[in-house]
Design brief:
The protein is an alpha/beta fold. The protein is 37% helix and 22% strand. Nicotinamide-adenine-dinucleotide (NAD) binds at residues 169-174, 178, 196, 198-199, 228-229, 232, 247-249, 252, 270-273, 304, 405, 407, 433, 474, 478. Keywords: NAD, Oxidoreductase.
């Protein structure tokens, strides 16, 4: 039986899409201010990963849907760019209030399709909200510069204008936060924004669309177009798209960057990660173990800033493995809607199989499986895509579990002798998203932060996602393009600078024109 769904996740028969109801919700696009089933004939199933049940039928867009969306975006972008900053700010402030007051509804939609526990989902909304609040600083961040009298009677000033139509292509692991890394900054700077959410957990994006509308945003400025490679390729090549923000895995990020830039678009493409936390012998090992286990197993390890490798230096190793192992065993895994659950399922059966396989390969290659979550079964949720927290010790750099982004609740411990060795391991890794050091030594921390080739660094902080007034971005294979996302880089990414040199001569000023190159 198929029922239709409104943006807040209610099916028409009044049941919620929490996977417990029998109905399968139709999940539509949001084009030019309304829910729109679109023209595309293809559908994709959406699951509740905790129960393994199909809960949604997602409409995948086609070329006709893309054309309709982009034409609406183009029309809206022209009007929106001319709308006064004070009117744009009023929409942003209302949107901020609406997201804050709908945190629980957004969190419920995230948990129903992603699986993370509700409190973690609410945390995701809160971090997205910080970027909305940063966008509320646009009167300051968009302010230009002015140089008076650079030459006699001549002033120079600069300001920034929107790119026009920009697209955001987002991953499954943060269905609200990552769209909010992009849309508020793109919109407040005067662009129209087209969101292509992950096919795996698409419903929260529709509630965001409804909240933008309720905040007074004109139709067409924020749209949601669902799809897979066909729509992504369309966005990357269509002449009406001026810029693309992408967040996802490294191979797709690289493809998106290459294809988009080849078609003349500005592109920022954030990729995958393998985040190392170094633990020195002088660290508070209980604090380090608490934070490592939270950073490795929170959201089942499906965070781009999850710590997946602990680099234990010297004497720290034995005690650290013992303490982290204890914490991993104590974690309650279950359906994210239950308040007792600390960790939910993985997103798909494929993800579960990948995690199990990589742990098996590490074991075969000589790593020690200290805590083994491969065969975990949750009572009453036998069909869910669960894997338990897993700790691997004595992992080496040539093992597949080290080389690949596992994207599951697995902490690999690599043992080294010195801080220099730890830095060498991190710098040899192709990813460079985040890293952390646990130590009591300011000097060691300073050496570390200056020498690692990683974009975001925590000192006794395991997941150093920058506050919204800074920008988020990794180095090396974790980011393709020149701009990090949100913060000042976000404002620059979504705008182009102009510099004006002006003279307003008096009628009887003597002409200074000359065939020589003008100098001041
Ligand atoms: P993904 O790369 O599979 O998908 C991301 C987006 O790309 C989705 O919207 C998807 O529809 C689209 N896509 C997938 N395959 C495509 C193809 N062949 N051609 C064109 N488009 C395609 O990533 P995911 O599995 O949804 O998300 C997890 C990944 O995202 C992890 O690697 C994680 O590290 C990364 N991530 C990175 C950051 C960061 O800030 N660097 C943040 C969140 C997630």
């Amino acid at each position: 039986e198929t029922t239709s769904q409104t943006a807040d996740g209610q099916t028409t028969d009044g049941q919620t899409t929490d996977g417990q109801s029998a109905g399968v919700a139709e999940i539509t696009h949001w084009i030019d201010g309304t829910a729109d089933a679109g023209h595309g004939a293809r559908r994709q199933e959406v699951f509740n990963p905790a129960t393994g049940q199909v809960t949604g039928s997602l409409h995948l867009g086609d070329g006709e849907d893309l054309e309709k969306t982009l034409l609406a975006a183009r029309r809206a972008a022209d009007l929106w760019a001319e709308t006064s900053l004070s009117k744009r700010m009023a929409v942003l402030f209302r949107f901020r209030e609406l997201v804050a007051s709908h945190t629980q509804e957004l969190a419920a939609l995230i948990t129903a399709e992603h699986g993370k526990v509700l409190s973690d989902a609410a945390g995701e909304v809160a971090r997205g909200l910080e970027v909305v609040e940063f966008a509320c600083a646009a009167p300051q961040t968009l302010k230009g510069d002015y140089s008076d009298q650079v030459s006699t009677g001549i002033d120079v000033f600069s300001f920034r204008q929107p790119l026009g139509v920009v697209a955001g292509i987002t991953p499954f692991n943060f269905p609200v936060m990552v769209p909010l890394w992009m849309a508020p900054v793109a919109i407040v700077t005067g662009n129209a924004f087209v969101l292509k959410p992950s096919e795996r957990d698409p419903s929260a994006s529709l509630l965001l669309a409804q909240l933008w509308k309720e905040a007074g945003l004109p139709d067409g400025v924020f749209q949601v177009l669902h799809g897979d490679k066909e729509i992504v390729d369309g966005l990357l090549t269509h002449e009406l798209v001026d810029g693309v923000s992408f967040v996802g895995s490294t191979p797709i990020a690289q493809y998106v960057h290459e294809t988009g830039t080849r078609h003349g678009k500005r592109v920022q493409a954030l990729g995958g990660a393998k985040n190392h936390a170094v633990v020195l012998p002088d660290a508070d090992l209980d604090l380090a173990a608490d934070h490592l286990s939270a950073a490795a197993f929170g959201s089942a390890g499906e965070r781009c800033m999850a710590i997946s490798v602990a680099v234990a230096v010297g004497d720290a190793a034995d005690a650290l493995v013992e303490k982290v192992g204890q914490r991993a065993r104590d974690i309650t895994v279950g359906d994210g809607t239950e308040s007792s659950s600390e960790m939910g399922p993985l997103i798909t059966p494929d993800s579960k199989e990948r995690v199990q396989r990589l742990v098996g390969e590490a074991e075969a290659d000589g790593a020690a499986v200290v805590v083994d979550g491969r065969d975990l079964v949750v009572d009453g949720r036998e069909e869910g895509f669960f894997v338990g927290p897993t700790v691997l010790d004595r992992v080496q750099e040539h093992m597949s579990a080290y080389e690949q982004e596992i994207f599951g609740p697995v902490l690999a411990v690599v043992r080294v002798d010195t801080l220099e060795d730890a830095i060498r391991v991190i710098n040899a890794n192709p990813y460079g998203n985040g890293t952390a050091i646990f130590t009591g030594s300011g000097n060691a921390a300073r050496t570390f932060q200056r020498q690692v080739t990683v974009g975001m660094i925590g000192v006794n902080v395991p997941i150093p996602v920058p506050a919204a007034q800074h920008s988020f971005g990794g180095w090396k294979d974790s980011l393709f393009g020149d701009h990090h996302i949100y913060g000042p880089d976000g404002v620059h990414f979504y705008t182009r600078g102009k510099v004006i040199t002006q003279r307003w001569p008096h009628q009887n000023d003597e002409s200074t024109a000359s065939l020589n190159f003008p100098s001041n």
